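Lab channel / #folding
Pinned by the channel admin:
"Please post every new chain as: sequence first, then the structure tokens as a reply. Keep commentary short and put observations after the output so the thread stays searchable."

First post following the new format, from NK:
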Amino acid sequence: MPQPSFPVHQIPTRAGLVFDAWLEGPADGALVLLLHGYPQSRHSWREQLPALAQAGYRALAPDQRGYSPGARPDPAQLEHYRYENLIQDAIDLADACAGPAARFHLVGHDWGGQVAWGVADRHPQRLASLTILSRPHPSAFARALQDPAGDQRHRSRHHRAFLDPQTGPLLLADGARRLRARLTEAGVPAEAIEGYLSVLGTPAALEAALAWYRANVGLSADLGRIRVPTLFVWGDADQTVGRAAAEGTPGCVEAACRFEVLPGIGHFASDECPERVSSLLLAHLAAHPA
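Reply from TO:
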């Protein structure tokens, strides 16, 4: 299937970073900020952008810190990739596109979901709604990870591999053969993989992406219960996020929370069932207008 193509915008922020991004929809539409995960890019939202724009939203899908060449501090200096900086990037991007203090909708998948949980915790007044794909609330994830009888530690074993300095070169060797194979096995279409590698397929970009793990070992985060209306989407065939972490997430949200399980879907829901993701997202946004 041909991949949608959108013009790439350069979004400068107050921190002096410039993010590559897709920005679609009417200028006066409510902002929807979509944060990708690893090993992906803005291309993970290629099907959601036109759906959101058609519904009247202003959809912003950036390549995040380290993924955008203009927002790539030295990955050897891990302080640049600390969790609080990633959270602030989301706020800065929203301010740049909607104005300071404007309320917006936030969507995140995988690492983008981890960042989105932090934004919701630190800046609940800014969010009209929160949508998370495939990333449990950090407290639920930590409980599952620490359970000696559970399987989350095994599911997350790749996090430890990402701390090894040889991992980046290994993943990109032979035309990124290993990275391509892992995404293919996870149900990601070949065209989508090409889009991700168009952003992530250089040593500089991949090392910056891995710096997110190295600067935030274990994905630990001190967050409270979330006070923003939340949609949490999890595929029950997700090989990296187990049932215990997923089912523990609604208990970490004190606002309205919908927990949607996608039968037979793995970690990359926007690749595997994009129409279902768009449908769930649009319904959630409509229920909680900005």
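NK: The mean pLDDT is 96.
TO: also worth noting, Residues 8-287 form a domain with the Rossmann fold fold (CATH 3.40.50.1820).
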